[in-house]
């Protein structure tokens, strides 16, 4: 069923996107009562260990000053978790996350995405990956179609397979997920086939495509998703890695559907604070967060409280403005690396391969068609690895695993000399392939 954008959109419950199992899911009999453990209530409830038996008597973290011109070599500040903060860090805690951190992040989201609180909440997860899987598990039943941008982040594919989703690929162009292609897919949906309710996209610094969806593109996609009533899973771990922040789907959705509820947004601390914290958060209507909370209660109980409290401490020390300054430093760091990395790549690969320079993210999505390569999976085994180079073949980023002429090349870590040698070897491998094809 479609709704007309001209009509005043009726307020519809976000739980319409949930599977029957997710709708019926309930917290266990212990966690259900956590909310009543207030200061004036004596709790005989949870089987928490006594923290006086734990050997940890303090946690300290040393952080840089995001405003220093050379943050990584500038002065540092030591933040200590003490008393209640330490107790919260080392004890079991609330399923959706440490309440103080959630409150802080809800404040961040209000400012960053200009969305006043009211119709959405935040919940923590063990990285945004954890939350994306739980969101898919709450919205997708075996055999359900799921719209996936293609290429897409390979990390979501095992989850989709596990849920027996049927993935429909929607191509990405230089501005990310193609609205034109999406319109086409939706308008020509096979008669009698179950229609999709969920769309997965990684709109900024797309992994692996490197593309970034700008405001206009996002509005086009949002309009289609409202028209066909599709929930957008906005996986946005590279959001802060653009030199200037690009408005998110979560920010823009109210321009298309005033009450919101069409977007679940996934943020991550992995790229801007530390991947090892394993901490991310989802921003969505409470109706969509509840089944995620139930899945968390059933699996990992909650995201690591030590990570949550360290991040809480850092964010309260820096404030939004300090966090954004740090994120900008990170964005500039990668922009700098991308600059010299691409310069080396061009020197070796021009005439052999092409790519679109990414606005954000950590990857070049290199198309090797110019060298005649149609399937980089076999190329990698038969030419790349024997020439001493390895990069991820494109097929890994398509649900269909169809042969692809692309490879994903990461510029996040490699030093200059290794990049130089790496692209030299890749060029040799491509030339070798080309000459074998010509001689065949
Ligand atoms: C597009 C995308 N989504 C999610 C993740 C996982 O993020 P997290 O570390 O928050 O689980 C990654 C990690 O590389 C990613 O590239």
Question: How is this structure best described in words?
Answer:
GO terms for molecular function: pyridoxal phosphate binding; transaminase activity. Belongs to the class-I pyridoxal-phosphate-dependent aminotransferase family. InterPro entries: Aminotransferase_I/II_large (IPR004839), Class-I_PLP-dep_aminotransf (IPR050859), PyrdxlP-dep_Trfase (IPR015424), PyrdxlP-dep_Trfase_major (IPR015421). Keywords: Aminotransferase, Pyridoxal phosphate, Transferase. Its cofactor is pyridoxal 5'-phosphate. The chain has helices at 20-24, 83-90, 99-112, 127-139, 157-162, 179-187, 215-227, 249-256, 270-274, 286-298, 305-349, 376-384, 416-439; strands at 59-64, 76-81, 121-125, 145-150, 166-173, 176-177, 198-201, 231-235, 263-268, 280-284, 363-367, 392-393, 406-410. It has an eight-stranded mixed β-sheet, with helices on both faces. A three-stranded antiparallel β-sheet has the order 11-13-12. Strands 1-2 form a two-stranded antiparallel ribbon. It has 13 helices and 13 strands. Helix 7 (215-227) links the parallel strand 7 (198-201) and strand 8 (231-235). The model is unreliable at 1-10 (pLDDT under 50). It is of the alpha/beta class. It starts with 19 loop residues before the first helix and ends with a helix. The protein binds pyridoxal-5'-phosphate. Pyridoxal-5'-phosphate binds next to helix 4.
């Amino acid at each position: 069923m479609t709704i007309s954008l001209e009509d005043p959109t009726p307020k519809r419950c976000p739980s319409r996107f949930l599977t029957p199992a997710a709708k019926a899911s309930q917290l266990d009999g212990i966690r259900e009562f956590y909310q009543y453990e207030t200061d004036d209530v004596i709790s005989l409830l949870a089987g928490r260990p006594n923290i006086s038996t734990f050997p940890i008597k303090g946690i300290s973290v040393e952080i840089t000053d995001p405003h220093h011109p050379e943050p990584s070599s500038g002065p540092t500040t030591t933040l200590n978790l003490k008393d209640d903060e330490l107790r919260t860090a080392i004890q079991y805690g609330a399923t959706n996350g440490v309440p103080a951190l959630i409150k802080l992040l809800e404040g961040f989201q209000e400012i960053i995405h200009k969305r006043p609180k009211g119709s959405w909440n935040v919940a923590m997860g063990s990285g945004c990956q954890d939350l994306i899987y739980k969101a898919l598990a709450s919205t997708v039943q075996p055999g359900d179609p799921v719209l996936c941008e293609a290429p897409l982040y390979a990390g979501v594919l095992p989850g989709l397979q596990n849920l027996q989703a049927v993935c429909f690929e929607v191509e990405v162009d230089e501005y990310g997920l193609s609205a034109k292609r999406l319109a086409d897919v939706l308008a020509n949906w096979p008669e009698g086939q179950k229609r999709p309710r969920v769309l997965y996209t990684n709109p900024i610094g797309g992994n692996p495509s490197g593309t970034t969806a700008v405001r206009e593109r996002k509005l086009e996609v949002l309009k289609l998703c409202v028209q066909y009533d599709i929930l957008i899973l906005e996986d946005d771990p590279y959001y802060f890695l653009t030199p200037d922040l690009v408005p998110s789907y979560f920010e823009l959705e109210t321009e298309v559907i005033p009450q919101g509820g069409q977007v679940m947004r996934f943020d991550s601390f992995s790229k801007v604070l530390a991947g090892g914290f394993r901490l991310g958060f989802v921003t969505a209507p409470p109706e969509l967060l509840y089944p995620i909370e139930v899945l968390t209660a059933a699996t990992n109980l909650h995201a690591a409280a030590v990570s949550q409290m360290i991040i809480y401490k850092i964010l309260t020390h820096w404030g939004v403005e300090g966090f954004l300054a740090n994120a900008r430093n990170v964005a500039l760091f990668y922009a700098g690396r991308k600059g010299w990395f691409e310069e080396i790549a061009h020197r070796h690969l021009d005439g052999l391969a092409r790519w679109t320079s990414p606005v954000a993210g950590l990857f070049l999505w290199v198309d090797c068609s110019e060298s005649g390569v149609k399937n980089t999976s076999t190329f990698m085994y038969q030419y790349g690895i024997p020439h001493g180079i390895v990069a991820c073949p494109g097929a890994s980023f398509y649900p269909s695993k169809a042969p692809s002429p692309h490879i994903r090349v990461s510029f996040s870590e490699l030093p200059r000399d290794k990049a130089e040698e790496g692209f030299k070897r890749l060029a040799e491998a491509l030339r070798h392939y080309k000459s074998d094809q010509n001689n065949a």
